[in-house]
Amino acid sequence: MAITTDFDVLIVGAGISGIGAACHLQTRRPGTTFAILEGRDSIGGTWDLFRYPGIRSDSDMPSFGYGFKPWTHRKSIADAHIIKDYLQQAVTENRLDDHIRFGYRVQSAEFSTAEGRWTVTARHSHTDETVQFTARFLFLGTGYYDYAAGFTPEFDGVQNFSGHVIHPQHWPEALDYAGKHVVVIGSGATAVTLVPSMADKAAHVTMLQRSPSYVFSIPAEDAVANTLNKVVGPTRAHRIIRRKNIMLSRGIYKSCKRAPRLMRTLLIGNVRRQLPRGFDVDTHFTPRYNPWDQRLCMVPNGDLFKAISAGRASVVTDRIDRFTENGILLKSGQELAADIVVTATGLNMSPFGKIALSVDERPVHLPDTTVYKAMMLSGVPNLAFALGYTNLSWTLKVDLVCEHFCRLLDHMDSRGYATVEPVIDDPRMDRVPVIDMSSGYVQRSIASFPRGGTTGPWTVQMAYEKDVERLRHGPVEDPALKFTPRSMPAVAS
């Protein structure tokens, strides 16, 4: 039987974003043909890639889950395997299994304005066969992580270390850390997840950080949500819980931006209350930056603080001089003994899964493009993408983008349009980074991403309420969009 390779929409990535796009197409546009190309052998994206102990969401699941599928598990901060189960349920309930092509890693995509279609080249990971797919629209649900490798600084003397050095992105399945001394290098979300998770089995776990991050304790279970699910049922409860959590998260974020000194005092005070009297909070949990200049690190039920208070984990704030045979020598002269060193030193970012985009044989240089409504690219026809929020649940943005994408397709079909292309109407408009955060992983890679604008639909504000206004309720027609009818030859701007 011949395998279909031509579609109305080709989705790249079977993670949160790609599955979300497919669900929206399946329910809102049942006649649309589509396929999902997934480079790995399983759905889940991030939640399938990372296998380190304790891997979990750092957003509440009622808002991190889809708007169309209530989150019913008791845990509000969920482990990766629970999230993957949820995604598999979405795939099954929406009959997406036959639409997913596993093992296809997309290498390039070229749009032809004469044909009004994309030609996508993918290589199959098992057969090494190169296959071409064609589609009217390309939807990129690739996220922004580089799946090939995480970020690890160069450490002097690492070759002399007699133990294991592991990056969380490449966690060995058979690693036995029971009774071992573990040093976790880092202070971000991965580090604060690993430390309490490994402390249950390890002899001792030390979090070694160059500088501290804001760590915020939240309940692992939402008592209000669990009560509402029982009283009014999951469907009605979902709407209430989701709205509550969005308002709470947005309230915290806005407070951090408007009153950083007050929020800094409250956040650090919350840490101080959960640690033993006399613990050096000023050194180990007092960051140099303002709250939400970088992401807050969430810890469910204060598990990190409990591990420290119990003596099973500790925090050292210092700089690394070099690795030794038995551990790490610090600039202060202290040496940390270690059997295992985990380099939770960050991620590498890459735009759109490193896919080489081109329009009429002209390569698209992403930093030269500007994002339109944070979901399309200037000068690139019939392309949409989903990049979630950095200051809120990722999926809230995915849902809005997918809704607008379906409305855009409806609009084009009802008027006989073949192509749509965002065109910048003011070439003098200032352009800014698409993600405005001081985090190291952002600063290292953001120059390779498309840029945001500063006016109109070109802004990227990471503000859910504003995106609701323009993506859910705003019109599809826009002076910045150039539509080309099917009856006319398509000409690129």
Quick summary:
The protein has 493 residues and is an alpha/beta fold. The protein is built from 13 helices and 25 strands.
Count of runs of 4 or more consecutive helical residues: 13
CATH architecture title of the largest domain:
3-Layer(bba) Sandwich
Percent helix among the residues?
25-40%
Mean pLDDT: 95
Tell me the name of the CATH class of the largest domain.
Alpha Beta
Pfam family, one: FMO-like
Cofactor: FAD
GO molecular function: oxidoreductase activity
Protein name: NAD(P)/FAD-dependent oxidoreductase
Keyphrases for this structure?
9-stranded mixed β-sheet, alpha/beta, 13 helices, about 500 residues, 2 domains, FAD/NAD(P)-binding domain, single chain, 5-stranded parallel β-sheet
Structure description:
Its EC number is 1.14.13.-. GO terms for molecular function: oxidoreductase activity. Pfam families: FMO-like, NAD_binding_8. This is NAD(P)/FAD-dependent oxidoreductase. It is an enzyme of class 1 (oxidoreductase). The protein is α/β, with parallel strands linked by helices. It has 2 domains: 6-147 and 348-485, FAD/NAD(P)-binding domain; 158-343, 3-Layer(bba) Sandwich (FAD/NAD(P)-binding domain), CATH 3.50.50. 29% of the residues lie in helices and 23% in strands. It has 13 helices and 25 strands. The strands form 7 sheets. Strands 1, 2, 3, 4, 5, 6, 17, 18 and 21 form a 9-stranded mixed β-sheet that branches. A 5-stranded parallel β-sheet has the order 7-16-8-9-12. A 3-stranded antiparallel β-sheet has the order 13-14-15, with no helix packed on it. Strand 13 (320-323) and strand 14 form a beta hairpin. The longest helix is centred in the middle third of the chain and has 25 residues, at 234-258. It is globular. The model is unreliable at 489-493 (pLDDT under 50).
